Amino acid sequence: MKDVELKEVDQAKQLMTREINGCVKVTVPENTGVKYGLSKDELIKIAGTAGWIRTRWALLVLFWLGWVGMLAGAIVIIVQAPRCKPIPEMNWWNQGLLYQISDVNAFSDNGLKGVEEKLDYLSQMKVKGLVLGPIHTVKADQPNTLDLTSVKPEVGTENELESLLKEAHKKGISIVLNLTPSYEGESVWFHNLTAVAEKIKEACTYWLNKGLDGIFLSNLGDLEKSDSWPSIQAIFNQTDKTKKVALMGSVTSLSVDDISVLLNRSGVDLLLTGQPDPAESGKKQAEVIQKLGHLQMSLGWSLSGRTLGSLASRTPAVPVKLFHILLFTLPGTPVLNTGDEVGLKTGEKPQTMWDLKTPDEETNATAKALQEERIAVRNFFKALSDLRGKERSLLHGEYVSLYSSPTSLAFLRLWDQSERFLTAVNWGTDSVTMKLTYSDLPAQAQVRLSTDAANLAVDRMVSLQKLELGPKQAVLLSYPYAG
């Protein structure tokens, strides 16, 4: 009996398994007499019952309710999410630093060719545009020698200017030509504005057709009153050019209100004002900035140049880095002059800047200290220029005055949901404690750049309720948008 049972078990195993090439293959007997699940006919019969029909309809309704609910939730999220503020219309002169090279031969030994050789340096400083010259032919107070469409041989040739323009464009740098007629004489207009204005009109057409990106004119207030002004302005309003060309100018000895009127009336693309005056008090400078800040897309802050002198010479009692912070964070275009980035004084040769690229081992302690200081100033300048070119709050953000006193001021730059930047400067000989209040201000902010490394080190968090600033010091702080 046991033998029979074993045989039956062995036979069942043989049916279930078979070894093929070392692998076990499972074989299920076809007619085991066991029935699994429902047949097709049975399923069709059950599917038509009232219970299953109700179940299917319930599941279908639940699916569509869930889908509609998710769609409604997505719409609510989109509607309630904060909208990004539209970016204002910006041109190339709004996007970073403008750099004036008034004396081409002083800037480089090789004239226009030398400027081309220094384009890499200018690109590292994040320069967006060069205001070049004047480089045209003229003798002081001799109107018959004026030729606005020629390049004086002392600085180079027209071909060298075209080569400079071509290479500058490759690096994203625009070139603006200064066409101030008599730049070394008693009057820039030779006391004959009408005759000179016609020559300016011809020169604008000539140089813009050569590919120049703009024209700059000093004493714009006088020219704007002439009969030729509308036809000059019309040259720059042409829409057939792929890149907007700029009509730029400067004014001196005008009040803040007159500057605003001139800017609106003239329609000039960028106006350099020479404001705020470094000799004025902090309160006065804050008032000037407040009145002109809303014109930031057509306003250039220029505290140095051919007639004003260098930035370091205009502010000898204050570190030049303080004014670097101010100029790069004001609502408008920062315009700096040759040598301002290292703190050169009026009369010092720009060759000093090129020596800093490969500094020598100075044996004189004083000379070595000065060399190290200028390298530090240049690095500080470069960091500010880099921030100015990429941060929306600094590029086109709103200006909010936070504090002002006879010796100091603080203001905020903010844009939509972008990071906020707070500038505080103290021109005085005593420390100040600024009590800053604004709905957007957190308790603390991070130091981004500072002239006081000992007390306001970079990346340190400082209190905004009582911001302490030492004499002749400045700091740039930032904090994130909090909603």
UniProtKB/TrEMBL annotation:
Keywords, in A-Z order: Membrane, Transmembrane, Transmembrane helix
Listed GO biological process terms: carbohydrate metabolic process; L-alanine import across plasma membrane; L-leucine import across plasma membrane; phenylalanine transport
GO CC, any one term: basolateral plasma membrane
InterPro entries: GH, GH13_cat_dom, Glyco_hydro_b, SLC3A2, SLC3A2_N
Domain Glycosyl hydrolase family 13 catalytic intervals: 100-378
SMART domains registered for this protein in UniProt: Aamy
Coiled-coil annotated residue ranges, if any: none
Protein name: Glycosyl hydrolase family 13 catalytic domain-containing protein
Organism: Culter alburnus (Topmouth culter)
Lineage of the organism: Eukaryota, Metazoa, Chordata, Craniata, Vertebrata
